Structures are given as structure tokens and as C-alpha cells.
What does this fold into?
Amino acid sequence: MTKPKHISSSRKSVKKDVRAALTGLFSLGVSVGLILWLFHKVDVRTILKVTRESCDYRWLLVMCLVLVASRSIRGIRWGIQLRAAGVKRMPAFAEMVSIYGAYALNLLLTGVGEAWRCVYVARRQRASFSTVVGTDLGDRISDAIMIVLLTTVAVIAANPVIKKFLDHYEVGRAIVNIVSSPILWIVVGVLLVIIIWLLCSHSQNRIIRRIKVETFNLWGGFKVLFTMKHQVRFWFYTLLIWIAYFLLTYLSFFAFPFTRALVRPELSYGLLPGLVVFVFGSLSIAIPASGGLGPWNLAVIFALSLYGVDSTDAATFAMVVWAFQTVTQVLLGVVSAGYVVFDHHKRRVSEHSGAVHEGN
It folds into this structure.
């Protein structure tokens, strides 16, 4: 006996909600676990004392302004991708708001913000949801490209420190052993062959069909990066975004005496330690955690320790900077929510007025 469609769809919806809840709980658990471990290792009273007595909050406020600028530019850049994919043009502030809201929601649960901004744009512009998702994937691919480039620059420019990390720290040695292992590359090669075979086959298996759809969306989002009309503008905005991201770390150095000490000639006036700390923090996004809390803090602490910064001082830097960035993103989220409600009401009134006018 065939099950009614509404029952089947209901079960799928429940399963999807359960998976999302479990993913969210896992990312939250990672954050809580790492933060508890961190506070077990450092002196919280010293952190509070340094924060009260030695912190120059003016630099942190400048950092917050740069954060707002980076999110705004990111929204405008996404608008270029959306138009290239055939989505109708949105007001520039609506493009910015989509990013403000996404980052604010990601503080609650990893990935929720990405889903929200795709749904928001697809509904507002009456566009294909899969098309919008494709541009979001392309957006993330451009991030991955920049992270790889910056990591390469960091390895070359700060080679002694990176070599120290790889040679003298257990994590660094483990990375070298894994990357240099022939078994890893054999496994990767076999997996690629299997994936290509599955994608080229005509199997009607539900999982394979899903993989094909996701791959098609991924390719569509990636392809538009190199076929859009305003490629130069897109990559210029990308460069501005990542310069701003670097400045979030570098400007924060001036807020504390122990990181301000790294701004000296032999360290390229703090640019090299800033780059290393920034790259370590960027790579930490590979670990799922709510708003980066936990993995980002530990990555920053470890990177600062490579330059001789005390663990408690490094923890102070990581926690205070993260807190200021988080508060800024929450405020931007409030702005986003207010705009979405106002804009929705405004467009409904406009559509109603248009319908009345046509009726007359």
C-alpha cells in the first residue's frame, strides 16, 4: 500500500529538522567544550584585569567599523553574482542586509545564516532557490581561494615561524605526516574516481541524484565567478573584503600592550605576526562551531604563542576581540531584522496599491 504524499513529505521534513537540530547541537557542543577547556588553562582574573587596565578600546571600535565595512562590501559583491546568475537587482542596502542577517544567525547555529540569506533573496526577488544557493556556494569558493592564497603567502613570508610550528609542535608534525603520506593521496585519488564514476553513471539512486544536483549547483556557483560581466569589480571587492578581514586582526594588535610589542621593524611592523594570526584564525573555520567561538579563539592563541605571547595574554586578546566582533554582528543582525520587516511591509503596501489601481 502506497503511503500518502503528505505523510511522506511530513516525515522528510521531520528528518530534516532533526538533522539540523543535531548539527546545531554538535557545533554548539564544540564551542562550549573548547571554551571550557580554554578557561581551565588560563587565569580568568588576569584576563579581566588586563581588559580593565590595559586595553585601548579606541582601536577595537575602529576594528568594529572595519568589520561593518567588510560585511557591507560583501553584500554588494554578492549582488554582482546574483545579477550574473539572472536574479533581478536588489537595492544595495538589501544586499548588505542579507549578509548582516546571515552572520548574526550563524552566531546561533552554524549554517543557519547561509540558509536564511538564500531563502530571503529567493523569496524577495522571486528567484530560483537553487540558483541563489549556487551563487552562495560560489561566494564560499572565492573565500576558499583567498584562504589558500593567504596561507601560501604566510608560509613564504613567515617561513621561520611556520617551520617552527611544523617542526616543534605535535599538531604541526601531524599535519606534515598526513600531507606527506602516500596513503592519503591514494585514498583521495580513489575517492575522486568513484565520485566521477557515480556522477557519470545513469543511476536513479536517490543519494546519487542528490550528489548530482549538489555538484551542478556547486559548478554553477563556481562558473559564474569567471563568466560574469563585472569580474574585475567582483575580484576587486574580494580583495577589499580580505584586506578588511586582515585589518580586523592587525588593528586589534594596537589595543593591547603585549600585541603592540609585536609592531616592530624586525617583524615588518606587526604585519607578519598579524598575517600568521589571521591565517590561523581563518583556517579554524573548518571546525564547525557557533560563530567560530572556540576554534577561532584557540587558533589565535596558538598563533600568538608562536611569537612568544603569554597564553593568558593571548587568551585575553582572543576573547576581547571576539566579543567586540560578536556584539557588532548582533547589532547588524538587529538592523537586518528591522529592515526586512520594514521592506516587506513597504512592498506589500506597494503591491496592494498597484492591484487597487489596476482594478479601478
Remarks:
- The two ends are 53 Å apart (CA to CA).
